[in-house]
Amino acid sequence: MAEQTQKQKTRKCSNPDCKKQVAENSKYFPFCSDRCRTMDLAKWRDESYMISRTIEEDDLEEDV
Ligand SMILES: [Zn+2]
Fold first, then answer.
1. What is the maximal distance between C-alpha atoms in the chain?
2. Ligand 1 centroid distance, CA of 62 (Å)
3. Pick from 17, 50, 47: which is nearest to 33 by CA?
4. How many angstroms separate the alpha carbon of residue 39 from the centre of ligand 1?
5. pTM greater than 0.70
6. What structural domains does the chain harbor?
């Protein structure tokens, strides 16, 4: 295993839609920016909202 010669270790932004690298000592780690962090939080909030959301009658009608 060769050691990295970089001063700062970086890894991919935790936002799957973002291809940027973020330094491990970054203020926003594991995200590259405040924008990515906010987007990711919003995504999780939306997903949990959808899971806990009750099925509306219109949805049932379409399924039958
Ligand atoms: Zn990012």
1. 60
2. 38
3. 17
4. 9
5. no
6. 10-63 (3.30.50)
